C-alpha cells in the first residue's frame, strides 16, 4: 500500500493540450482574418522566437501554404519541417465523426531576415515622413 501511495505522490500529469499551445504557433483560418494579417503575425513571431509554426485544418491549408510561400519568396523564412495528418472531428455536437486534413509548417528565420526587416522598417519611416 505504501508503494501505491508513493507512486500516486510522484505522479505527474501532462496536459496534451499544453503542447498544442506553443507560443510560436499560429492557427490559421481562411475566414477570420485577411492573408497579410497572418503574414505580418508570422514575421513578428519569427522576430521573437526565431521560428514560427503555421497550422491549419481543411480548407485553410491552402492559406497556410500561401503564407509560407510569401515568407519564403520574400527571403524572410526557410522551411524547416512540414507535417501532414488527419484529425477526427465531429460535425456538430453528437454528429458523426469526420476526418479533416491537417498541416503544420515550421519556418525559421532566413540568414537575411533581420537585414530585410530593418530595411522594411526604414522604408516605412521614409514613407511616413513623405506623407507628413
Describe it.
The chain is α+β, with helices and mostly antiparallel strands and 132 residues long. It has a single domain (25-131), classed as 2-Layer Sandwich (Translation Initiation Factor IF3). Helix content is 45%, strand content 28%. It contains five helices and four strands. The chain has helices at 2-9, 16-20, 35-49, 61-73, 113-131, and strands at 25-27, 51-57, 77-90, 97-109. It has a four-stranded mixed sheet with strand order 1-2-4-3. Helix 3 packs across helix 4 (61-73). The longest helix has 19 residues, at 113-131. It is elongated. The model is unreliable at 1-20 (pLDDT under 50). Residues 9-25 have a biased composition (Polar residues). Pfam families: Alba (PF01918). This is DNA/RNA-binding protein Alba-like protein.
- Main beta sheet: 4 strands, mixed
Mean pLDDT rating: 83
Percent helix: 40-55%
CATH fold node name: Translation Initiation Factor IF3
Using the alpha-carbon principal axes, give the shape.
Answer: elongated
Specify Rg, calculated over alpha carbons.
Answer: 20 Å
Number of contiguous helices: 5
Question: What is the CATH class name?
Answer: Alpha Beta
Number of strands: 4
Strand content: 25-35%
Q: How many separate domains make up the residues?
A: 1
The SS-based structural class is alpha+beta
Stretches with pLDDT under 50, minimum 5 residues: 1-20
In CATH, the homologous superfamily goes by the name Alba-like domain
CATH architecture: 2-Layer Sandwich
Ends distance: 78 Å
Q: Widest sheet: strand order?
A: 1-2-4-3
Order of helices and strands: HHEHEHEEH
